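Human: Can I borrow your eye for a moment on a structure tokenisation matter? Separate attempts, laid side by side, tell us more than any discussion would. Could you pick a protein and write out its sequence and tokenised fold? No explanation is needed for now; the record alone will do.

Assistant:
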Amino acid sequence: MSSLKDKDFSEDVLQKIKQEKLSPKPKWQFLLKNSIIWGLGVLSLALGSVSMSLVFYMIRNDDAGAYGRAGSNILETLLFVIPFFWIICLAIFAVAVYFYIKHTKKGYKYSAKKIILVIIGASLILGGIFNILGLGRVIDDVLGERAPFYDRVINPRLKYWSNPESGRLTGLIILKVSPTEYKLIDRSGETWATLLPNEETGEMMVVGRPVMLVGEKISDHKFMIKEILPVGPGRGFFKRPHLDGVPRMCEFKPGDDFRPCELPPIIPFVK
């Protein structure tokens, strides 16, 4: 009885193939489809690993304690220390890898738990290697210099450190006026006179170097420095054209009003 049913089923299938003029797809189409799926999976894993390297780079090169010294509470510190943008990117690429693995020829054999653990492990290992090789730093520099909304979306720390009223100022040092006074241009292109309590504290104040400052705004465009921090993630932002074209400072005596000259300066960027 069973063999009769199988025979009838086979005849029905053959009849349908003849009626609809169906023909098997060539092998190269299956190979191409499988290659594309694997290629996209590998690409997604690579991008996820790059995102992980940027997570490592941004966490490693941030001083969490500086946020507290700048007046932030624990919640604000966590919001800025944790690189949420790159963690979200990592999650998106991890989901993409999972999707592509499931659509491979043997993807159905693997459980979701096993696939996810492999993806996370591979991203951690490759991301760590990329970070050691300096890839995270290079990509952040490029994005800082060119990516739109970098200081608001990709690295909102720059926006956080650009609040002089709250005692935070970041920018590029463009002129040494005296051992205790430097001119700085902030992320929006505004020029500030930054003052040191004594010349011994100005070791990190180098013309052409971006810095983050903790201190106090004492008057319009004048800032008293209490602490100087280096800019790690986001330093590429200060290579942007609107900062390179800042007017050159005229010679003036300390205490005089700032007057811009017409010629732009040539400021070597100090890493």
Notes: Confidence is low (pLDDT under 50) at residues 245-264. The chain is about 50% helix and 15% strand.
